[in-house]
Amino acid sequence: MRKPDFLIIGAQKAGTTTLHDWLITQSQLSLPNIKETHFFSKENRFEKGYNWYIKQFDMTSDKKIIGEVDPDYIFMPGVIEKIRQYIKKTKFIIILRSPIERAYSHYKMSCYRGYEKLSFLEALKAENNRLKSNDYHSVAHFSYLSRSFYAPQIIKFKKAFPDSAFYFSNFDDLFSKDHKEKEFTSICEFIGFTPDTSIIDFDLSSNVASTPRSTVLHNLIYNKNSPIKKIVRPFARLLFSEDQRLKVAQQGEKFNRAKKKLNPQRLKFKPSQELREQTIKDLDKLQTITGLDVSYWHREEYLL
Fold first, then answer.
1. Residue 256 near residue 213 (C-beta atoms within 8 A)
2. Same domain membership, residue 201 and residue 183
3. N or C: which end of the chain has fewer CB within 10 A?
4. CA of 275: how far to CAs of 121, 279, 293, 303, in Å?
5. Helix, strand, or coil (residue 283)
6. 256 is in which domain, residue-wise?
7. How many domains does one find in the chain?
8. Are 169 and 93 in contact (CB under 8 A)?
9. What is the pLDDT of residues 29-88, one digit of tens each?
10. How many CA atoms lie within 13 A of 40 on its CB side?
11. Helix (H, G, I), strand (E, B) or coil at 148
12. 193 and 217: one domain?
């Protein structure tokens, strides 16, 4: 049975959507028809079986390499065990972003989706209690700091897949004006092919902070208590399969992002000494594990 040749497993809010959109331009690659299938991270998807998962890929003869981009995989509970049921060896790619910046970007996404009502500082203080419930929604949307401590997550994967190859990419290199094409090429060569970079718009930035074009459409996608959603849902379930509904929701969310992006605003808050020490300790481990030079993430501007 065909196995993925590579998995880009994270980190969330570290440019994986943009990387996905660059990769789909390459004719020899096959990525799933459903972006981020969550097959290994959501129980109801995993229950569909591996045949369902592999059918998400275009298997025509010119697609020499198959793989998936899903940043939930590095963090969500139970993923490693599920992957190991079917895949013992593959190539893992992990993009890493400065921890507090990643956490804040995650927080802004949860706010955009209507899930987060607390201030960033309040959300950080509430995180441990929120995650105690271990329900999928809380773990997915409120794990701001937990996802940003990378070393323990990577150690688990490397231990579980000792025969697999790992590529670690620095977000700052992947999206630097002077380095992005070279870094993207390095990722592709690690996967196993030489990319055609002439057809890629490297100025493309996907899934960045923006305002929705339509509040109605936004609530229809994200607000489970939306009156319109309650009316539409029964008809949607009758007319479309779950896979079709998911693809429509993904396309709707992409369309609903306004062309005008929000002006980036740096967060101004002073992290506690404990958080600062935790972050630096994790970064020191991360540098040893990955070989990436992230020592500059110790600087004040990266710790906000």
1. yes
2. yes
3. N
4. 12, 6, 21, 9
5. helix
6. 210-261
7. 2
8. yes
9. 999 998 899 999 999 999 999 999 999 998 877 778 999 999 999 999 999 999 999 999
10. 24
11. helix
12. no
